[in-house]
Write a structure and sequence with these properties.
This protein is an alpha+beta fold. The protein has 3 helices and 8 strands; from the N terminus they run αβαβββββββα. Strands 1-2-3-4-5 form a 5-stranded antiparallel sheet, covered by helices on one side.
Length: about 160
């Protein structure tokens, strides 16, 4: 049961609810408009993201879908995706802690202005996960933290 798509879907929805989602720019995928669902299914057809559970709409036509197997993020119809088990490290915004580059000066880092999460896959690939500035982005980060814990626990 712990590895099942149903379990992961339920955990994603539970964590989303604990973080005040859905909200103005985040949705449960099964509750969005049918035409929008079809658009995203067409875009994502080459990947097995599992069951799409959460949709986050970011700035300038960017979006992120968290599925039961993968996270996909992009702009319009171009995107990149990562399997949950392939996530190595991640940070909010422009890498303030220097995980991917030199550390930014923390006094110059404004949490409220961040609208992306930078992720590194285990093989070294860097991805940008898009969201809205503010609480929705940090809710997404909390969901990714939970995914990381589930994946790490399942690998043991």
């Amino acid at each position: 049961m712990r590895n099942s798509e149903e379990y992961i879907e339920n955990r994603l929805k539970w964590r989303a609810g604990k973080n005040g989602l859905p909200s103005a720019n985040s949705y449960f995928f099964d509750e969005i408009d049918t035409n929008e669902k079809l658009k995203f299914h067409e875009i994502l057809q080459s990947f097995d993201i599992g069951k799409p559970v959460l949709l986050f709409k970011g700035e300038n036509n960017t979006w992120t879908i968290i599925g039961t197997k993968m996270i996909a993020s992009g702009k319009d119809s171009s995107f990149e995706a990562i399997e949950h088990s392939e996530i190595d490290t991640y940070t909010v915004g422009e890498d303030p802690m220097g995980i991917f580059s030199e550390p930014a000066k923390m006094k110059d880092f404004d949490k409220a202005k961040q609208h992306q999460i930078i992720m590194k896959a285990k093989e070294g690939r860097i991805l940008t996960i898009h969201g809205q500035r503010g609480s929705e982005l940090y809710a997404m980060l909390n969901i990714i933290l939970m995914i990381d814990r589930i994946t790490t626990t399942n690998e043991k």
